[in-house]
Design goal:
Blueprint (H helix, E strand, L loop, with lengths): L7 H5 L7 E4 L2 E4 L5 H21 L2 E5 L4 E4 L2 E3 L3 E5 L5 E3 L2 E3 L4 E5 L5 H5 L1 H9 L3 E6 L4 E8 L2 E9 L3 E4 L4 E4 H5 L1
Parallel strand pairs: 4-8, 9-10
Antiparallel strand pairs: 1-2, 3-6, 4-5, 6-9, 7-8, 10-11, 11-12, 13-14
Length: about 180
């Protein structure tokens, strides 16, 4: 039936590789990202992977990997960090629960969801840091989850650095956007 809310159970029945995310009970198509998006994703994944591996603090995983947040939300964030002491469980099928860090790299087709509905769910479900990276505007924002919800703790544009308090990691934007 059109208009019927879908659940994680419905989502899990989709064939592997189906380009959808389950957002607030709605299957939303996620087309393949473009060149700038992928370039930024690889740069950030390299930085995060090298850092996390060096300190043996957890795992960095890149999309596509399913992140099951609740019964109506299963996303494929661009990058996630799951720390060793995380409440999230990494299994073969995907990640169950809130990753510690979620990175969304904005694309024209998904930016609305990344900045609104998905951000609200990440906040509610307990993601500790939410990073929003915009390759077109060359901006990088880091939000920290507090009792009052997500608070912008760091922002830079084109040049400069951002700092993750959770990971104790400073990132130079020239390494991300070059």
């Amino acid at each position: 039936m059109i208009g019927t809310k879908k659940t994680v159970k419905d989502y899990m029945e989709l064939p592997e590789g189906t380009p959808y995310q389950l957002i607030e009970g709605e299957l939303v198509m996620s087309p393949a990202p473009g060149y700038s998006h992928q370039k930024v994703s690889i740069a950030l994944a390299s930085i995060l992977y090298g850092f996390i591996k060096k300190i043996s603090k957890g795992e960095v995983l890149a999309s596509p990997i399913d992140v099951y947040l609740d019964e109506e939300n299963a996303y494929q964030p661009d990058l996630v960090v799951v720390l060793k002491d995380s409440r999230a469980r990494v299994e073969e099928r995907g990640i169950f629960g809130a990753p510690d860090v979620v990175v969304e790299i904005l694309s024209p087709s998904t930016a609305y969801y990344d900045l609104t509905e998905k951000k609200d769910v990440y906040e509610r479900i307990g993601v500790k840091e939410y990073w929003i990276v915009d390759p077109k505007r060359k901006t990088f924002e880091i939000y920290s989850n507090s009792e009052e919800g997500f608070k912008l703790i760091c922002h830079a544009k084109a040049k400069g650095k951002v700092r993750s308090e959770l990971l104790n990691l400073e990132i130079d934007l020239e390494e991300v956007f070059s």
